[in-house]
Design goal:
Helix content: 25-40%
Protein name: Ubiquitin-like domain-containing protein
Largest sheet: 5 strands, mixed
Structural class: alpha+beta
Radius of gyration: 24 Å
Order of helices and strands: HEEHEEHE
InterPro entries: Rad60/SUMO-like_dom (IPR022617), Ubiquitin-like_dom (IPR000626), Ubiquitin-like_domsf (IPR029071)
Strand order of the largest sheet: 2-1-5-3-4
Pfam family, one: Rad60-SLD
CATH architecture of the largest domain: Roll
Number of strands: 5
CATH topology of the largest domain: Ubiquitin-like (UB roll)
């Protein structure tokens, strides 16, 4: 086989792969993959493409590792304000393609509303 024929065969194979990818995308793409945006309190967004059937723990650990956070010191919330657990999959958490997850630091403490002088027990 001549080098010209080899080159044309490679070009045709690459075109075939490109066309198949384009047709696949036109047909709806891979429905098992969704795009998720993680938005933190400082407005720094991170974008992830995850499978619907893989636990979110992988994404959470990757995000926390990149931002030097302890995964146990943060809370992930879906667009409706519900907590997202690391052992959930995107499908179990009800996440759809293009959803944004908010991340917040755990805030513990507080005693409630301050007591007025007339309400003190002393």
């Amino acid at each position: 086989m001549s080098s010209c024929m080899k080159l044309s065969t490679i070009v045709v194979e690459r075109m075939d792969v490109t066309i198949r990818r384009w047709l696949h995308a036109e047909a709806g793409g891979d429905v098992s993959l969704i795009n998720i945006t993680v938005h933190n309190q400082t407005a720094a967004d991170a974008f992830f493409r995850v499978r619907r059937d893989v636990k979110l723990e992988r994404m959470i650990n990757m995000y926390c590792g990149k931002h030097s956070l302890n995964p146990k010191a943060v809370v992930f919330m879906d667009p409706y304000g519900r907590y997202i657990q690391a052992d959930q999959t995107p499908a179990e958490a009800g996440l759809e393609d293009g959803d944004t997850i908010d991340i917040h630091l755990h805030q513990l403490g507080g005693t409630g509303a301050p007591l007025h002088a007339s309400q003190s027990s002393a």
